[in-house]
Amino acid sequence: MSIHHAAPRIAATLIVMAALAFSAAADDLKVTIQMESEGTASIVGLEQPGEDYEATMWFGNGRFRRDDQDQSIITLLGDEPKVYILNHAEESYVALDLPVDIMAIIPEEQRPMVEQMMEQMAPEVEVETTDEEDTIGEWTARKSIITVTAPMGITITHEVWLTDEIDVERRGYDEATRALSGMSPIGGDWVEQLADLQGFPVLTETLTEVMGRETVSRERVVSVEETTAPEGTYELPEGYTEDAMDIFGSL
Q1: Is the torsion defined by CA of 98, 103, 104, 107 positive or negative?
Q2: Model confidence over 19-70: pLDDT tens digits?
Q3: 92-97 and 241-242 as β-strands: parallel, antiparallel, unpaired?
Q4: Range of the domain at 59
């Protein structure tokens, strides 16, 4: 075979090899989310941000990270599974073993108050799955409604649109959501219901009603990209110090 005839085959082989090399390197999924909120209602551990912003989620092999303004959360699902909640403003973090046991890591002097609060604030959770479908961004999704009712005039309604068209391992995402919701006395049960639903949420609209005041927040996926996470994405930043969990506020 002459070099003239071999050239196209060599070029084709190089293209295939380059594509394979790229796909092997791009083993992470980057999900960009638009966060929006309006209103004034808030609950300890579930305060809504006062401005709209973009959040980012990274899904790796047994690893997960989410970045929200000055807070990040990292889930590692290896031999010693952990969740790290990072406070960038204070350069600190909370480390949680999986499965998360919030009471085990709350300072001992706070536990009686937290147990009493959780008992008093224990919510009722109802889930309604529907056949309603819609196109959310690029994805076909179906609607489910999770309603959380708690004492003191608190009602939280999550309208969740889930799709089967985003291929992602949800465990890291679910564990991170459990850890964050565990900071609220009424946060945990609805997350368990969400984890049982099939698909990945591409739009979640949450109506929070607290004694007549309302907040509406929206979490909408705007892009999904296969790429390589920057170095250090799933690692603790240098210089950050470990802190204790405070269920009555931030880290």
Answers
A1: positive
A2: 333 333 458 999 999 999 887 555 544 445 557 999 999 999 999 999 999 9
A3: parallel
A4: 28-242
